[in-house]
Specification:
The protein has 131 residues and is α+β, with helices and mostly antiparallel strands. The protein has a single domain, classed as Beta Barrel (OB fold (Dihydrolipoamide Acetyltransferase, E2P)), CATH 2.40.50.320. 15% of the residues lie in helices and 28% in strands. The chain is built from one helix and five strands. A five-stranded antiparallel sheet has the order 3-2-1-4-5. A hairpin with a 7-residue loop joins strand 4 and strand 5. The longest helix has 20 residues. It is globular. The structure holds copper (II) ion. The site of copper (II) ion (CU) has 4 residues, from strand 3.
Length: 131
Amino acid sequence: MRRALKQNLGLACAVLLLAAGCGARGRDYTVRALVVQAPDPANPAGGLYLYHEAIDDWMGRDGKRDGMDPMAMPFPVAKGIPLTGIAANDKVEVTLHVDWQADRAVEITQLRKLPRDTRLDFRAARPSPKP
Ligand SMILES: [Cu+2]
């Protein structure tokens, strides 16, 4: 069981390295979230339904850095990211890769479970005044 987890993590890293090597475009955001709904193994394309904390430095499609408030939303998950063992009410930290030029503009490229006692903070976004 533990070995399987290690292999999965290794695979995730390999996928990340590959993604980073292939002409890294876009931006990465590190986001903490509560899992709203366990992923459906029969439909991995359905993504992961998260209630995420504010993303202060979020940059929209228009290039404006306007932040994103906490909200529940589904996220597509990159191939090779293991979702086994992820259940509703888990707390997770994900890397969101955002590339507005890509077919799939937003996807989770990294995922890790946080300790059960992690306190998430669903305050509003504080966008930076920087242009
Ligand atoms: Cu959102």
